[in-house]
Amino acid sequence: MVQMLCKVWGVGMFSIVALTTSNILLTLRLMHGREDVGVGGGCGGVVIPEVVPHSWTSALSSTNHTEYLAFLRSAAINTDPTAGGDGEGKQKDTEGVVMGAGFVVHEVMGRWDARRRYKTHDHVFTGPQYTRLTRASPVCLATQTSVDRLFWLTQVARYWRAPMSVAVFTPDVEYAIARAYLTYLVTCFPFLGEKVSFHFTYPREHLPKDLPLTIEHLEDKCDQPLAVLKRLLKQRSSKMLSWRERMPYPQNIVRNVARKNCATEWVFLADVDIIPIPGLSDRLATFLVSNTATKCKKCAFVVPTYEVDERSPLPHNRSTLLHLAGKGRARPFHQKVFVHNQHATNFSRWEARELEQPSEGRVTVSHDVTNFEFFYEPFYVARDDVPPHDERFLGYGFTRNTQVYEMHVSGYTFHVLSPIFTLHWGMQVKRSRPAWREKQNNANRRLFEGFKREVFARYGKDPLNMMATKKPRKA
């Protein structure tokens, strides 16, 4: 009996030693070597590196890169039954299934909008930490973008530590570009890929077209997100661009897609070029479970936004921000382009709080918005039961402000948070509008005439006297 136990113990110890040795060797291999793995034939042979490039590992040391990249490979290979086998890394489709690098779209599936103009595929890619973060955080960041602005996501995700829901507009070959570039982003920037869920939306007239796009030596280009995107965008022909530029961007449709795919109680809805400061998500999370937030059922909390000279580093706290503002290198968002866009936030009052509230202090309400304007378009945090964006407004003009206006009419109040803020990198200046943009704005202004009557009928209120015969100014 004793001899048998000794044998069992010996076998067990041998197995433990062997397993430990194997893990050590594997770890050393991952740290010092590289094994490239072709992912599911997606994106025409886009290669996912076994390890994160050394230029990023020091900045992202808190992330378990090996586990993360293993998830990417698993997501791509296991969901594509046609991947591999031809030795060329080319894509194979079966019955309309288009897959690659974890981005799964079945052309027959998806859902149409109410007028069957646009089809959406939800959660075509979901990062390995998205579910856990959704359970742990009260807030999710929702944003939307066209393909040519995807590079901003590296800045948006850099300091945001809660889940992100991103809707991407992908007509025609921009679908293939999106797949290739998003594969690049989630590979090179795990702090984005681990916590994001992507959704694709495209118009009925321009269904997705796939191309065998390749990003050669991907791991050597992880410090070139803008250059990589520019190269991919060259796949758009001049013929395509002739209609693409004039096509109305369905802002409100993709805003709703991004917001409704957040599964948290609270949603921070912002544009893709609005950059959170370090600690914003954690500080918001703490505030949103406080009595101030939980006891107010119809509150929207405004996060002030400033634009910063692109020659300046982005400030991380209010004192640094105000120092830049004093030098003329930072100012309230859209102050020069369209002052009504953010004016009701009352930035001067927010800035005055610096004397009484430390920049690193806990988040509180600085003041209430008391001078609401029709064209007010704040970036705000609110519960997910706010009125949706009206999807009849396409392109530019009357898109965001009409949703905020309906919130105001329905009884929501807006409260400015302090000392947190978000940033837009680059000072915006007035430019002449192209004819197609003015055409979209005029069409939306005509739509608003019916929209305001619907809002009045729905709530029986007209706090801004919009039912008078006067027409609103141009947006």
Automatic annotation (TrEMBL):
Needs which cofactor?
A: Mn(2+)
Glycosyltransferase as UniProt keyword: yes
Indicate the segments annotated as coiled coil, or none if absent. none
Q: Name one Pfam family in it.
A: Glyco_transf_49
Q: What does it catalyze?
A: 3-O-[beta-D-Xyl-(1->4)-Rib-ol-P-Rib-ol-P-3-beta-D-GalNAc-(1->3)-beta-D-GlcNAc-(1->4)-(O-6-P-alpha-D-Man)]-Thr-[protein] + UDP-alpha-D-glucuronate = 3-O-[beta-D-GlcA-(1->3)-beta-D-Xyl-(1->4)-Rib-ol-P-Rib-ol-P-3-beta-D-GalNAc-(1->3)-beta-D-GlcNAc-(1->4)-(O-6-P-alpha-D-Man)]-Thr-[protein] + UDP + H(+)
Gene Ontology terms, cellular component aspect? Answer: Golgi membrane
The Swiss-Prot or TrEMBL record annotates one GO molecular function as: metal ion binding
UniProt family annotation: Belongs to the glycosyltransferase 49 family.
Keyword Metal-binding recorded: yes
Entry's localization field: Golgi apparatus membrane
**A GO biological-process term:** protein O-linked glycosylation via mannose
Pathway terms, separated by semicolons: Protein modification; protein glycosylation
What does the organism's lineage look like at the top? Eukaryota, Metazoa, Ecdysozoa, Arthropoda, Crustacea
Keyword annotations of the record: Glycoprotein, Glycosyltransferase, Golgi apparatus, Manganese, Membrane, Metal-binding, Signal-anchor, Transferase, Transmembrane, Transmembrane helix
Q: What is its main location?
A: Golgi
* Protein's UniProt name: Beta-1,4-glucuronyltransferase 1
Q: How does the protein's chain sit in the membrane according to the entry?
A: Single-pass type II membrane protein
